[in-house]
Design brief:
By secondary structure, the chain is of the alpha+beta class. It contains 2 helices and 5 strands; from the N terminus they run αβββαββ. It has helices at 2-13, 62-72; strands spanning 19-21, 35-44, 52-58, 79-89, 97-109. The protein has a 3-stranded antiparallel β-sheet with strand order 1-2-3. The longest helix has 12 residues, at 2-13. It starts with a helix and ends with a strand.
Amino acid sequence: MATEVKRYTEQMINTKRALGELNHPTSADVDLERACHLVESLTQDSSNSNIYIGKSKVLSTPSGLIVQSLIRDGCSVGMSTRSLGKLVPMEGGDDVSRVKDMRLVGIDCV
């Protein structure tokens, strides 16, 4: 995970291309017409290396305005990562797999 977050930070966050969509689409492509926020940072939690904390800026796009309204009206808005990878069965585990070659695509507002 750390390697992929580093790549995503360098290629997407640092170049201001880390856009997230409203809802969690089924496509691996980020649809610019649905963009609602820009991810500004992802940092590993110092107390748990399996947790990453992100910071995003809500955009003034149509989808971003929906998110702004939801937040102003007191709704809790969550985030969800969208990734690609290969599921590889683990030895000795029935229906247990691990992800190989993970690629973080986006962090969406849900």
